Amino acid sequence: MKILLVYPYFLDNRINEEDVSAVPMGLYYIGAMLRANGYGVDLLNGYNLGRAPHRIYQVLGDKRPDVVGFSILHANRWGGIDIARMVKKVNPKACVVFGGVGATFLWKHFLTHFPQVDYVVRGEGEVSFLELIRHLEQKKTAPPTHIDGIAFRKAGTPFKTRDREPVADLDSLPMPADHFSFQHLSLTRGCPAGCTFCGSPAFWKRRVRFHSADYFVTQMARLRKKGITFFFVSDDTFTLKRELVIAICRRIIAAHLDIVWVAISRVDCVDEEMLGWMRRAGCTQISYGVESGSRKIRDLYRKRISDAAICRAFDMTVRFGIMARAYFIYGAPGETDQTIDESLALVRRIRPLSAIFYILDLFPGTALYDDFKQRSGATDDIWLERVEDMLYFETDDAMSREAVLAFGKRLREGYFASLPDFAARIELVDQPDLYPLHADFLSRLALTFSHGDFAMNPLVKDCLATAVMLFERSLAYHPDHRAFWGLGLVYQHLRRFEDSVAILQQGIGHHKDSVDLHLALANSLMRLNRHPEARLCLDRFPDHPQAVELLVRCCRFMGDREGEQTWRSRLKRLQQR
Hints:
- The structure is a single chain.
- The protein has 577 residues and is α/β, with parallel strands linked by helices.
- It has 24 helices and 17 strands.
- A seven-stranded mixed β-sheet has the order 2-1-3-4-5-6-7, sandwiched between helices. A six-stranded parallel β-sheet has the order 8-11-12-13-14-15.
- Its cofactor is [4Fe-4S] cluster.
- Residues 8-143 form the B12-binding domain.
- Keywords: Iron, Iron-sulfur, Metal-binding, S-adenosyl-L-methionine.
- Pfam families: B12-binding (PF02310), Radical_SAM (PF04055).
- GO terms for molecular function: 4 iron, 4 sulfur cluster binding; catalytic activity; cobalamin binding; metal ion binding.
């Protein structure tokens, strides 16, 4: 039996493609479970195929799957429906199975309105989907009422079986890294919080289960062997068990994995010792759900955190050289100019070095969505409209689109205008063993001001001056490669070529074999008409296309036609490889 697992596309384009490009971890776990039990499984990441149906048809024609399983998050449900129709067009006998958080909460909706959907796996899917595959393989005519955690049509009517008990021991699940390559990892399943905008309380029943430190780090190590060095740890709250987190960090360090990773936490679930271990183990960013500076709004979200805890967490996180990112949600019931002022005041207190501001969405499975249905009399049939989501203000006559968009504009303008000041006020713990990591942190941040997102944001002022300050602070801690390179490039941009040459030469003194530093130095020397020196810089990299390009230019400027022709021929050979 051939099985294809699909992550469908979304209707709307994203400013940041990475927000939707990663296949959910659950799909990898299901794929691993199936492969470990002898089934052939392919996986299609179709997040960007909304305008390329021919590519989907090509995959379906090549793979000829008997069963196609879809990971439905809700906003990608129409992509799932569209592809399910394609599946049935290619092979009417193929079985379509929807799963994931979106399918779990709308199982009846899908089975009522979309005949292309044959089954829905509700909740945790590994065991339910495996048992369903075995049932389909046996080609039994009786409906699979014995399989917990699924839904289907029984006598033409949507029917669900009993809820499945969650897997008691997460380490008993086959390890996805043995079968797939990916960057997103999870230590836990579930979250103890009860936030009204989140589907986790209903999906996981506010129960939390944990992998062991050995399982988690082993999976990370196996992915590292495949060449993956950057990881997103995607748990709702990675730091729930302090000793477990520290044990994981110690194992990462002992194994010399040399990786970089980011995580999500709550402001009341971190402390200094934990943060120190996380930083030493490669953590560079922690995202915290702040949601609002208004206690009234946070209470409405059931976000049970205090201003003091928020300030403490952001201060501690940055002090250990970890980027503290803040999530804010605006446009809640009762949002006013005053509550936005309170959010801006909190932003100025916590000084986040990254912040994301979302408009409040209503999703099935959340308490706010249930409240909307009660007060409006609406049903799940509202999702028959071809839209991704529903913004809260669209359901509240007391709020206008213009007002809510103005709230967002004020938040973003206020935040980005303050960002250079936040960077200037960074304080780091004075622990000598952390100095190289402090340098790394400061140079990473500097690069966002010189060449990254902040540099391209017109709301952020004094970007280059801020970058120079951060690069210089970085080098005061440690001869960081990125800081030498970034500062040399900024000096080039400012036409301070002598300064650029000096700092790049200093960097090469510490990093003798750095191609990037030599290329940057050659560029600055050429701007100063010091082409023979630039040529000496570049001669040592005859197999690097960019170095050879610069050598062609050097020879041309120096009138060395034979050398120019030699390097031009070499460049052509390199480009043909």
